[in-house]
Amino acid sequence: MIKTSATTLLKLIGWRVSFSLPPRDKYVLVGAPHTSNWDFPLGLLAMWASGLRVNWVGKHTLFKGPLGPLMRALGGIPVDRRGSVGFTRKVIETFASRDQFVLAISPEGTRSLTKQWKGGFYQIALAAGVPIALGYIDYPRRLIGFECMFEPSGDIEPDFKIMAEYYRDKIGKRPEQQGPVRVGNVAGKKG
Fold first, then answer.
1. β-strand 132-138 against 26-32: which pairing, if any?
2. Under a CB-based contact definition with an 8 Å cutoff, are residues 76 and 90 in contact?
3. What DSSP state is assigned to residue 181?
4. Considering only CA atoms, which of 17, 121, 45, 37 is closest in space to residue 77?
5. Helix, strand, coil shares of the chain as percentages rounded to 5?
């Protein structure tokens, strides 16, 4: 019922979903570009329409007050970006302890313009031994896609080149807020 309702609603508002990921029980799902508050509800609808059961990472302030329980029920996991080291370890442990776990993360970490992506999603995937799936939202085409998956090699620069090429033609709602797909400081980065 949720899948049909989400698909119908997306069609009514003029959006399509392209889903062609191979079946996997565990992976990190990158969501980019992230330039608008609209990315979240559209992304949730697309995941439901695709039949994906996903947990997602959100700023801890989204989970305060009366909306907190709803955000958790929707699969949300709060992160306080002021001290996320424990968060990364906790997520890696969650991957190890569950038979199925898909974690969606926006590597920009904000809707504002950034000079580079945060590398936590990459560290999590590498340490947990899970692939990275690339999801996008493309406003000019009104298309949300989950179409590419790869195993992180541990050599971050070439892996980020794969992602930069993939996202090259994906455009957010506010293109001026869309930064480059470039790696930031990551522990263990080669080069």
1. parallel
2. no
3. -
4. 121
5. 40, 20, 40
**117: number of Cβ within 10 Å:** 26
Strand 16-19 with 143-150, pairing: parallel
- Look at residues 10, 7, 42 and name the one whose alpha carbon lies nearest to residue 136: 42
CB count, 10 Å around CB of 93?
A: 12
| pTM attached to this predicted model | 0.85
In the chain, beta strands by DSSP E: 16-19, 26-32, 55-59, 76-79, 101-105, 132-138, 143-150
CA dihedral 187→114→166→154, nearest 10 degrees, is 0
Q: What does the pLDDT profile of the chain (191 residues) look like in tens digits?
A: 889 999 999 999 999 999 888 889 999 999 999 888 899 899 989 989 998 888 988 778 888 889 898 888 888 888 776 665 577 888 888 899 999 999 998 887 666 666 767 778 899 999 999 999 999 999 999 999 988 999 999 998 999 899 999 999 998 898 887 777 777 765 545 44
Which burial class, exposed, middle or buried, applies to 111 when counting CB atoms under 10 A from its CB (0-12, 13-18, 19+)? buried
Residue 69 tokens read as 């329980």
